[in-house]
């Protein structure tokens, strides 16, 4: 297909003011009657035909203002309905279609999950239900009537408030009518029907509106929805206090389903979730699961304002809702938990997913200029870098300026489909600041490199920072303009205290230096002793900083920096230097400085255990590969990392054993951040203590595996055991399966751990597990847990030099593509860093990608990724 370009945007020719939907649910022949109140757009082209989108639709009947339409007056195919000569400038079009929810394996449109009916419409799924101008700038109010067999679907839900329900006399069927008073685009439509258990609660908004809350889950799982409900209520309150945003319907429902392409979906008043982000109990969910649930529940709820009340004009503006809403959910979790630890976790995730995307063939701007398949742009760049851009805006404008801009944005654009320009204008107008150059963050792809050189002049008592910035070339963007980069800095004096930051006579507010040029110098005055610069504090900008800090300076910052993020980063920087050296030259590492710094962190009783766990966890293999940038040998990286981990584990054995012993839980499991932090440090110690597979280390892990009273500790112990070729590995895997085999979400963890074993027989193991009764190619969670975890989380085996790992993943992509193109193309995206591999592995990755690209009949999703990855 031809690319769709932002520059070609035109307003819709026809608007829809009102939509009445009538669903007669049936497993294979669901009947959908849509009545659309169409109105010619005064801003459109004179005499334009009505063209409605469809996707694989079967048309049964058409009528205009109640009169059936003769075949000669329209043109209907599976993918489009055209009325070349509309009868008037406004009329009601009635469309009857038949859809087959059971055959819908793409999980877009109306489909079935575990026998229940549900829908997924973002971005272009509504057109798989009925013909419609399926674009986000057509906003309508919806009334939805659903009828179904009472036995098959006792629960019937849709957007908005329930206005009517009851039996259909003389039949075994019943019905419900839902009305959503808020105009919305079609992608926010949702319907659910099925046998579901309900957890009910209520919330009273700041202005006194009573809201009925419901979380619907598969029968028998209601007791696992408590944490999600608690997270929902906390999210609702937080949005009122942090952003002044109240909920706006009488009902807020969440439904958890087990077959879902992504994490969750923010449909108005009826969020639909992957059950992974709803269900939790201490026995089956880890601390990471709990924080994931909290974050995703918040994210979808926050979309009610940033996405739903103000939506996107077109899909190029996706970051308008996604980047902003990720920023909001990150802030929520920071307020609920530890802010520095949350920031560290977010930056680790950003670097792993987005920096790697930005440095490879799939790099694209936060707001792309063109796309072939919009489903492929729900990326780390749009989401996570999009959130970083909002964060930088806040850093530049300050707390009050940012809030004023947000308030103006809500006030101006409530009920509209907006653009990034609208968003930026609200901040510019609220603060008087020119954001023209800042907008480059939405246009230019690639991660800027900021190079900093510091020099001290003892006589003049000045410290000078010479700063340059450059954005590397990316696909379609060979040259770049300088960006506005808010670089938060500190100058740490010899006693560890921050020195005052004064440029000439001006105090640098909040430590924010604004970089705007390719090269700039900042001369700080009144500096009495040579400081150590602390750069990009709090990771204030998503850039790579080249600082030239010495190992001693990093050790100093790890011990003294007032900024917790940079304390963490100093230690990571030390480790990264050693790991790169080790991977490049295979040279023995000399980790004494790192060991000393790590020992100090471990012994520091003033530090939060969760922070210590983050600081002491070595950079991942992916980050080391990205730093090396070219000729990457994943086996060498793995070996260097293992060697450094062993050196640390051995040198700190006493301290780690003491930590492990001291952090025994005092009571039963609770998922709060402080308890989770203690578990994370204890489990990090467990891992280090077993790194050399010593009998003692393995026995400790085996004992924890058997005795754990919660999934966090049990899984952490299992993760240690599976990485070592010891008899305890298979024993523990078998015991785990036996214990949790009825629980698909737990068996996903079992798949993930096995898929990530760095051993030469893992590929065979993964192939074997694909035939396991618990595996299904039809369920996205299973595919991601087994094949996705292998491709994205096992660099040595996915990139085997014999090419078997690449070939296997390509085979799965091709098998999956006809069933579920979205999941297939995401899996193929695991090849996004293939160009940085050394020549042998690079050739095998290229061959696998070419084989995929050359396969006839590919979906647009897979074909787009294959072409761009090779491009
Ligand atoms: N807005 C949603 C994005 C989405 C999605 C969700 C479920 C299945 C398919 C999907 N395609 C796009 C999720 C979010 O960011 O909140
Ligand atoms: Zn979102």
TrEMBL record:
Aminopeptidase N-like N-terminal domain ranges (all copies): 89-188
Catalytic activity: Release of an N-terminal amino acid, Xaa-|-Yaa- from a peptide, amide or arylamide. Xaa is preferably Ala, but may be most amino acids including Pro (slow action). When a terminal hydrophobic residue is followed by a prolyl residue, the two may be released as an intact Xaa-Pro dipeptide
Domain (Peptidase M1 alanyl aminopeptidase Ig-like fold): residue spans on this chain: 446-545
Domain Peptidase M1 membrane alanine aminopeptidase: 227-438
Domain Peptidase M1 alanyl aminopeptidase C-terminal intervals: 552-870
Alphabetic keyword roster: Aminopeptidase, Hydrolase, Metal-binding, Metalloprotease, Protease, Zinc
Required co-factors: Zn(2+)
Top-rank taxon: Bacteria
Enzyme Commission number(s): 3.4.11.2
GO terms, molecular function: alanyl aminopeptidase activity
InterPro entries per record: Aminopeptidase_N-like_N, Aminopeptidase_N-like_N_sf, PepN_Ig-like_sf, Peptidase_M1, Peptidase_M1_dom, Peptidase_M1_pepN, Peptidase_M1_pepN_C, Peptidase_M1_pepN_C_sf
Family label: Belongs to the peptidase M1 family.
Protein name: Aminopeptidase N
Organism: Xanthobacter agilis
Upper classification of the organism: Bacteria, Pseudomonadati, Pseudomonadota, Alphaproteobacteria, Hyphomicrobiales
